[in-house]
Amino acid sequence: MEREDNRGEAEKQKALGIPEMYRELGISPQTYEFGAQVEGELRSRFDAIDDTTEYNQLKVLHAMQQCRVDASCFAATSGYGYNDYGRDKLEEVYAAVFHAEDALVRPQIACGTHALAVALSGNLRPGDELFSPVGKPYDTLEEVIGIRPSKGSLREYGVTYRQVDLLPDGSFDYENIQKALNERTRLVTIQRSKGYQTRPTLSVKRIGELIGFIKERKPDVICMVDNCYGEFVERIEPTDVGADLCVGSLIKNPGGGLAPIGGYIVGRHAYVEQAAYRLTSPGLGKEVGASLGVLPSFYQGLFLAPTVVGGALKGAIFAANLYERLGFSVIPNGTESRHDIIQAVTFGKPEGVIAFCQGIQAAAPVDSYVTPEPWDMPGYDSHVIMAAGAFVQGSSIELSADGPIKPPYAVYFQGGLTWQHAKCGILMSLQKLAEAGLVKLESPGL
Ligand SMILES: *Cc1c(COP(=O)(O)O)cnc(C)c1O
Questions:
Q1: Which of 119, 226, 395, 416 could make a disulfide contact with 315, Cβ separation 3.0–4.6 Å?
Q2: Reported pTM
Q3: How confident is the model at residue 6 (pLDDT cuts 50, 70, 90)?
């Protein structure tokens, strides 16, 4: 754009209010007004989220002060990365935030699945049994475990797997959990977030109750929590309620949108160490692994993470209430308490899923001009549409949405680096649905 044009734009925008700014972005006054009504009723919930953000901000700040983080932590190392002060210090900070003995926080961990695979394979040996008392784990874990036959799975190494599903009302099936525990049970894996299933997400308190039950019967078992999408949603983390290991991805919550790669494993020293021997090599463990230059973004991302997660949560609650009011089924519903940042909205027809995703894409800071279409994605049994205009590729702490084109035609969305952007994205999704004639906004459901 010519500089002259920019000046003209500046003159024009000076005179505009917020609704007019939304109109500049393509969001009609009706859409804006509908959103404003929904938002107006969410004040007390937003205040509660702000309190959690404040608490977690202080928790992270305190950890950084306690560990005496200083400018030398941000230096890059290369090669073997021996004596990488900033890397080791960051791991101390993570251990402090999670009230854990030790942590492994590395750019060499490619994603959440990799972090979980490292924690599992580092701590399981042939003949051991892995047990999930909360039903089927996240899709990608099926191949790690060998639930679906896969090269290099735990199953190929002689680790067996057992699972007990949640009861239909979402509670733990204690009777069958007790029966499933046996002398070979070595590690219990508990997934906090529902991921892309319809079961409820577990609160940290409920995770603590489950761990208590298991440890009472088998004190030496390792309790591991897949913490993906859960970090900083509550004031406590699974390590505060007895988890021996807690694992997640830095391109979700704890990276704060700034970490360009990475994962973490925190918990008891002996188990973190076992994971480190798997990540690098037996004998080397945590001693090697150059940080290259990513440490400033790891530190700063962690520092921002409580605020970013708060914004994403507000977006999820706003969307739940907005689409619920329009008559769509939403999980979690508009009033439920939250234990992760994922929101599902069921549209009942493909056009709804497509319009929603196209709205999220159109509101992105990156690639806003492209139009996502359903495609035949490897590993899925239906077409899938994905919307993501992120600074970090594939980042799902940034505003993103995806939906398989099959019944019940639900879309899963999450993230937003700021509440304001999440709101804009959700309004744009509504705008696209209205333009496609899939919703009517004249009478805002009052
Ligand atoms: C995202 C996620 C994973 C896997 O993380 P990737 O970074 O996609 O490999 C595992 N478990 C849960 C619950 C997740 O949400």
A1: 416
A2: 0.94
A3: confident
